[in-house]
Amino acid sequence: MSLHTTPASADDLRLPELNKWLASLPAPALKLDTLRPASSDASFRRYFRIDSPDGATFIVMDAPPPQEDVRPFIHVAGVFGETGVSVPAILAQDIEQGFLLLSDLGSTTYLQLLNPDNAHKLYIDAIDALVHLQIHSKPAVLPEYDRSLLLRELMLFPEWYVGKHLGLTMTEKQTASLNQVFELLLANNLAQAQVYVHRDYHSRNLMVLTQGNPGILDFQDAVFGPITYDLASLLRDAYIQWDEEIVLDWAIRYWERAKRAGLPVNPDIDAFYRDFEFMGLQRHLKILGIFARLYHRDGKDAYLKDLPLVMEYTRKVAYRYKELAPLVKLLDELEDKAPQVGYTF
């Protein structure tokens, strides 16, 4: 769920069906004339807010079949909810029509509220919630974040960012070089311990709550996968950037908490941070492809402004590791930039 509100158009064919469904619900009582847009996201899903006579508010999800399927959302809401983290409760559902009535976690996202004064507390809350979620992980409950899925995500970069957005066709040598980097990332990602992975655990999907902070949204794509993935989503956020030393501090605080909780993070902090960076790089290459696809295929240009930050993250990590030098060279060639050198590790 993101921040872009989408008013319903007059010829919205689903709205009458949605209203009819809401009117048929025995409880809770709802004031149908208060239905209003709450937010939409990068998919076909959209969200409305509706009031009850006693002043309470609820969220209505409209996930139109066949493009969307509410069953994964329902499943993950149950799995995550059982761990004790704050997720919306499902109060009513119509799976065939793609309608859900949810409890309302408010309208203030982390992204809206974050500033240098409150960031530390909000991020520590998010880290504590992440550790709490991860310690309850069990295999065979969520789909596996396996090699084929990780590779499919990486391939969004050459197809959509390089091919469609930059309008370039890579040479055989460049393709082989990129595939070499992909293999390095996959080997690292797949060697990491496996836990529940939200997959978009970042400032747009975390709601600021007075109790049980944060509220967690947009979890329907959750999987069982690499332990550093959600931390990379949180600390190397495509929508907000923090100084490297602050990110390092938060990463270490997560690592210390995870170790105390008995989570199987890499016991060596340098090796753990490398895991975190390689996982983040996989994610950012994927995001470059996704943001390009949202624009070129789906006509959504709001994400183009976020591409420079994602590319900055990508380049910074690639510069830091000698084995990622082929990626730096490739990016320089694709973007026609002069080669730069600077390895930390």
Q: At CATH's second level, what is the architecture of the largest domain?
A: Alpha-Beta Complex
**Rg, Cα atoms, Å:** 21 Å
- Give the uncertain stretches in residue-range form: 1-11
**What is the beta-strand fraction?**
5-15%
Shape: globular
Structural class: alpha+beta
- Taking the alpha carbons of the first and last residues, their distance comes to 37 Å
Number of strands: 9
CATH T-level topology of the largest domain: Aminoglycoside 3'-phosphotransferase, Chain: A, domain 2
Q: Write the CATH homologous superfamily of the largest domain.
A: Aminoglycoside phosphotransferase (APH), C-terminal lobe
- Spatial strand sequence of the major β-sheet: 1-2-3-5-4
- State mean pLDDT (0 to 100 scale): 93
Under the CATH scheme, which class of the largest domain?
Alpha Beta
Whole-number count of domains: 2
Order of helices and strands: HEEEHEEHHHHHEEEEHHHHH
The count of helical stretches stands at 12
Query: How would you sum up the major sheet?
Result: 5 strands, antiparallel
The percent range for helix content is: 40-55%
Architecture overview:
- Helix content is 46%, strand content 13%.
- With 345 residues, the protein is an alpha+beta fold.
- It has 2 domains: 14-103, Phosphorylase Kinase, domain 1 (2-Layer Sandwich); 110-334, Aminoglycoside phosphotransferase (APH), C-terminal lobe (Aminoglycoside 3'-phosphotransferase, Chain: A, domain 2).
- The longest helix is centred in the C-terminal third of the chain and has 28 residues, at 269-296.
- It is globular.
- The two termini are 37 Å apart.
